[in-house]
């Protein structure tokens, strides 16, 4: 098992450990390629700084509690704030003949349901993405520790980007199980007129019609959407930040003020959001249709939508995801 993890880390295209060490100032020129790499020279200082800077021990109960709380804020509140955009996107995916664009979707929804109609599905969105954020942030740290122990201290540092990608994918697997029931209810509320207006109406009705299957039949497409999304989010965000500080910002990161660093974070977050939306949008279209229809399957939905159909609502989702990334990234240190 260890050998397979190490091999996947080495072939990961997002990581080049020696170049990264040189960029971080932790390694000099590779004068002896055949020899074993020396330990990072700043590791002790970084550890000491971390102890002084943070108020709780890494891996402690308080640490995981704060991670979970950050996940609730970063996912639950931000997704709830963009419910009108999400509603327009879902309706464009369901009925592109009626809802031809974002503003057209807003206009039709406002005429038919009033201002309250634009907030349809806010309750399952808040509950579902709060649970997803809590699980994602906590399990992300848990898997980082687990995979670090598997790789060993030196390899864990050298291949840290690969480790973070693996940890984020593993965490998202469990986070989507927590999200699936509320995502299913949200789609029914937003895309089936007359089905239900609130979570209290939708959940019992769904259970009566299809049992527990109604809440979890979309979990596999959710994995297809969210796991690549999360991995792309991390890889693209981190590399964009590095590129901005290297090629755009005229001074080192340590010399930048907090507002300047925040601007870089926002730009990197929105850039990552664009790529995340593109990578995960076809699966998002399948999830939306699948949760609306009874007795359907992901493969049947994909065949019926076709290549053009799975890209409906992409522009709305790019705006939504970019906004979420900017808001979420501003909550991270």
- Helices and strands, in order, run as HHHHHHHHHHHHHHH
Q: What fraction of the residues are assigned to beta strands by DSSP?
A: under 5%
By DSSP (H or I, 4+ residues per run), the number of helices equals: 15
Percent helix: over 70%
- Mean pLDDT over the full residue set: 77
- The geometry reads as globular
Number of strands: 0
Radius of gyration: 22 Å
Structural class: mainly alpha
Poorly predicted regions are 8-52, 329-333
Distance between the termini: 34 Å
For the report, how would you describe the main beta sheet?
none
What does this structure look like?
There is one protein chain. The protein is mainly α and 333 residues long. It is built from 15 helices and no strands. The chain has helices spanning 2-11, 17-24, 43-53, 61-81, 83-94, 102-113, 122-151, 153-158, 160-191, 199-210, 213-216, 219-248, 258-292, 298-309, 314-329. The chain is globular and about 55 Å long. The chain starts with a helix and ends with a helix. The model is unreliable at 8-52 and 329-333 (pLDDT under 50).
Helix-strand blueprint:
Blueprint: H1 2-11, H2 17-24, H3 43-53, H4 61-81, H5 83-94, H6 102-113, H7 122-151, H8 153-158, H9 160-191, H10 199-210, H11 213-216, H12 219-248, H13 258-292, H14 298-309, H15 314-329
Helix pairs in contact: 4-7, 4-15, 5-6, 5-15, 7-9, 9-10, 9-12, 9-13, 12-13, 13-14, 13-15
């Amino acid at each position: 098992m260890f050998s397979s993890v190490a091999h996947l880390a080495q072939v990961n295209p997002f990581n080049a450990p020696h170049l990264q060490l040189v960029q971080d100032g932790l390694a000099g020129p590779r004068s002896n390629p055949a020899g074993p790499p020396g330990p990072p020279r700043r590791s002790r200082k970084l550890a000491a700084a971390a102890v002084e800077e943070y108020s709780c021990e890494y891996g402690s109960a308080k640490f995981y509690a704060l991670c979970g709380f950050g996940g609730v804020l970063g996912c639950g509140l931000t997704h709830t704030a963009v419910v009108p955009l999400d509603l327009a996107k879902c309706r464009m995916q369901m009925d592109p003949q009626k809802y031809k664009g974002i503003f057209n979707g807003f206009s039709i929804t406002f005429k038919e349901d009033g201002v309250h109609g634009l907030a349809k599905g806010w309750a399952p969105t808040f509950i579902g993405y709060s649970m997803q954020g809590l699980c994602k942030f906590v399990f992300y740290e848990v898997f980082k520790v687990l995979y670090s122990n598997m790789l060993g201290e030196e390899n864990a540092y050298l291949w840290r980007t690969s480790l973070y990608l693996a940890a984020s994918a593993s965490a998202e697997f469990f986070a989507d199980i927590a999200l699936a029931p509320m995502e299913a209810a949200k789609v029914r509320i937003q895309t089936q007129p007359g089905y239900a207006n609130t979570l209290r109406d939708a959940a019992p009705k769904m259970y009566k019609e299809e049992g527990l299957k109604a809440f979890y039949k979309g979990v596999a497409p959710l994995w297809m959407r969210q796991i690549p999304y999360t991995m792309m989010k991390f890889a693209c965000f981190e590399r964009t930040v590095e590129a901005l500080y290297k090629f755009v910002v005229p001074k080192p990161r340590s010399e930048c003020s907090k507002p300047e660093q925040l601007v870089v974070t926002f730009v990197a977050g929105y850039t990552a959001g664009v790529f995340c939306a593109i990578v995960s949008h076809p699966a998002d279209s399948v999830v939306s249709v699948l949760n609306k229809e009874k007795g359907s399957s992901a493969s049947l939905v994909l065949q019926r939508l076709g290549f053009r159909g799975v890209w409906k609502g992409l522009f709305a989702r790019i705006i939504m995801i970019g906004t979420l990334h900017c808001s979420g990234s501003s909550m991270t240190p």
